[in-house]
Amino acid sequence: MFIFIVILENAMKDQRIGRAMGVCKKVVSAFSYSWKKKRELKDVQKRMNLPEHSLKTECPTRWGSRQAMISRVLEQQKAIADVLYNDTKNRHLTPSWQDIDVLEAINKSLSPLVEFTDALSGEQYVSVSFVKPTLHLFNTSILAVQEDDTDLAKSIKQKIVGYLNEKYNDAPTQELLDMASALDPRFKLTYVSEDMRGSIEKRLSSEMKTVMEKASERAVTPADDTDAAAATAPKKKKALGSFFKPVTEGTASTSTALQPDQDKAIALELQSYLQAGTLDTEADPLEWWKVSQQFYPRLSNLARRHLCIPATSSSSERVFITGGNVVTCLRSSLKPDQVNRLVFLAKNL
């Protein structure tokens, strides 16, 4: 979640970024702790026809607060310079044109991440299948180096893309993201690399087969219960003709005989799904699977298993914050069981 902080901490090795961020924080602090400067800022905003917005302070534990602080300083730079020019004690805090250029490069590089991160942090819709498409979009267009970018902007973009690609580069994570993307009818195999498509199709077939086996085991369980009940019932006398009945094939041979049919059904269902047209990117894949469950019964079970995974840790962080709001200094003696119930009610009512 804290991609901004990690990337900027790595980029802070550049003296230009370190100086610009230091000036930005000092400017915000000067206006935050002075009611007089706040009043003067509002007067200047009205005179210059600027939005009457207050400056934002960075909070290390609040997502995107650093970028929001930079964006607000850039928006109000003329008003800030006017107020500080008349203050002899704090005139030195006025950002120079070099600092403004650095802040603009940071803001231009980090702004796209805000919208995408907010979208990926939702809880009421599918998000995990968007990770691969988002990474592809970052690499090819949004964070791609442009000709008019400054050297600093290019460096920041390259560090962002490099960090994201490295973060999701391990094989298990890639396979999970490919499976989630393949099971989303909006994307399917569009964002799966060519050399991985065959293995993803095999993985889908294997998991579909596992789903069928588990379903058959659950179907057999009631029969076992019936047999157990029959064993406790009074034993009936066998007729003489029952000894001359031909012996039926066992369960193992039956399952072996049905194996080719199962493999054929799995292959047909998978190919039918992959060859069908993709869904609109703004449509709800869960609604689509609800309607199409009768056509793809095995794949729908896999979709239910994979598409419920959240793309970020935001949901668990929100629960943790809710727990902190419940267990305050005045309620520090609550028992864990009671805390669990209060957090559950706070998140579900």
Characterize the structure shown:
This protein has 349 residues and is mainly α. It has 3 domains: 1-121; 122-220 and 261-311, no CATH class; 314-348, no CATH class. The protein has 15 helices and no strands. The chain has helices at residues 3-11, 15-32, 35-48, 65-75, 77-85, 97-120, 131-142, 151-167, 171-182, 194-232, 251-275, 285-292, 297-306, 314-326, 336-348. It is elongated and about 100 Å long. The two termini are 26 Å apart. 21% of the residues are buried.
**C-alpha Rg (nearest Å):** 30 Å
Largest sheet features:
none
Total helices: the number is 15
Low-confidence stretches: 247-255
Mean pLDDT: 83
Structural category is mainly alpha
The residue fraction in helices comes out at 55-70%
Structure described in brief:
The chain has helices at 3-11, 15-32, 35-48, 65-75, 77-85, 97-120, 131-142, 151-167, 171-182, 194-232, 251-275, 285-292, 297-306, 314-326, 336-348. The protein has 349 residues and is mainly α. Helix 1 crosses helix 8, helix 9 packs across helix 10 and helix 12 (285-292) runs antiparallel to helix 13.
Blueprint (SSEs and pairs):
Blueprint: H1 3-11, H2 15-32, H3 35-48, H4 65-75, H5 77-85, H6 97-120, H7 131-142, H8 151-167, H9 171-182, H10 194-232, H11 251-275, H12 285-292, H13 297-306, H14 314-326, H15 336-348
List keywords for this structure.
349 residues, mainly alpha, 3 domains, 67% helix, elongated
